[in-house]
Amino acid sequence: MEHAKYSSQQQQQQSSNQVETATSSENGQKTLHWLQSSLAEMKGEILDLNRSVNVSRQLQQQQETAGQLQLTRSDVAALQAQVADDAAHGQQINQSIQQVRDDVQRLDHHQQINTAQLERLENNMADLRLELQLSHKMLVNQQPAEEVVVLKTKKNQRRHARSVELEDDEEVNQLTTPHKVRHHRRELKHQVHTLRKMVRTLASEQHDLQKQMILLSQLRTTAESNVHKMETELKAVLKRLDSQSAKCNADDVAQINAQNKKLAESVDRLSLKVSGVDQVQSSTLQLFEAMERLEERYDDSISELQREVSKLEYNDGQLSSTVHTLREDQSEQNQLVKSLRTTATLLQEQVQADQIRSALLLAKLTNNTLAMMNQTHGQQLQSWRLAQLEQSIQSAQSIESLRHSLANLEHEYNNLAHNLPHDCRQVSSTGVNFILPRESNQVIKVYCDQETSGGGWTVIQRRSDGKEDFNRNWAAYKSGFGSVLGEFWLGNDNLHRLTKENATMLRVDLWDIYGQYWWAEYDSFLVADENEGYAVQFHGYTGNASDAMASYHQSMKFSTRDNDQDLSNTNCADSYQGGWWYSHCQHVNINGKYALGLTWYDSLENEWIALAKVEMKVRDKRIFNQASTTTTSTSTTSLH
After folding, report:
1. Which residue intervals define the domain Fibrinogen C-terminal in the entry (predicted)?
2. Does pTM top 0.85 for this prediction?
């Protein structure tokens, strides 16, 4: 009988194991099918994006060709302007040549005037010589009157030829009187002296005029040679400009024709494509709507999408290894469940046997008690009543004392809680402490850091070895989990209590898998309450790690595997196996599965930082509003 019962139990156990194995394999196949379909959708979306990028490239090429045409037109306009400038410069040179010619004509005119003046001066000199001869002969009075008459006749003839008045002849005729000879002699000497001065002055002026004539002739020759050179250079410049403009215009026209030909071919191809697009307008509209949705979903550009795809492929490999590990763990768990079921069956049989023996013993005890009570019914009844009465009195007294003790204990607990520090800035040493946040009656066990960047930090999260499971539900992340001495999450309610006054700083200390240290600090850190989904705010970044928190997770609500509040179409918390303030999905993954890898996106280097250890910590910035010196203290005695 027992053997049949045991065999039936084994059959049931085997059938249940088979069902569980089939269920687990079916779940694994569904998971793999879902991953394959997701990858296929991603590849299709990438192909659509590549098509849209090709269209954008064609449009960009058209714009570049139009820009090149515009540049060519501007070059042609510049060449035309240069030719116009050269023509204007040639006109200026012609004007300069004409001005030089006018100057030469003026110099010729001045030379003619100077020549006439020289002729007049020569005539005057001849007249003066005749007058001097006449005066000298009259003074000497040696020549006869006939010679005097001849000289007078010559003088009168020269004066008549020059249309000069004959007033001097009368004066000369009047000089015959002896008493006027001396006076006339003095006047003649004075005139001779004056005439000599005039002759010397005229001679010097004539010499200067001759020099000027020589200089003018030299200037004329130089000007004519310069004009000839300028005309030659102008002709050469015009010829060179004509050849250059013709060559440039020919090259530009050839380039423009080639570009126009390419544009015509591109326009023809685009016309064919446009005709095809017109035939499938409805599908094109759907494609643009899909592109808009894709832009909304992947608004951080194609490079980020490729990074996400590479990360998904990496996660796919990790998931495959994890699935293999889970299958091995599942087989071990199935064996363990089998042994536990066997043990439970044996224990149930032992419990049933013990229950039977207990029932028999209880029946025997009841019979014995009834027998004894029948023997001493009266005394036992009275004694029993007295005992019950005394017991009632004692129990009442003990309950009253317990109530009093409980009240005292509550009072002492409240006094102790109110005397606790509000945060770690009121604690002097590093280690585990109890704090009571402001406007809260919930005491929190925390780890205080007094050594990093001035101290006063309350550690709210730590990842170091992967021993703690962070793939928890909403309730676990709400209240917190783990040990403050190891890996833990302080709890979203506690984060809200610590940051609700909007006077809290956040610091994230990071150590990558190569041992390099990174850090990021935010001057303002605020976590809303549960009604607002524990939405987060980051402001005022400093550090040597990139601003991955505020740039991607700003104002996001907290998500867990059972409460998806991110912006992605997938459940990011379930995919990355950890609760976080996800967006599309993350640039910071420090609450995910440790074996898959903790990551922080470095936007400056455009790469992911693989992390081995992470600590998140907060402090009140009203006291630590400036960086203080780092203090070193020993570990404190902690309250447990």
Report:
1. 415-622
2. no
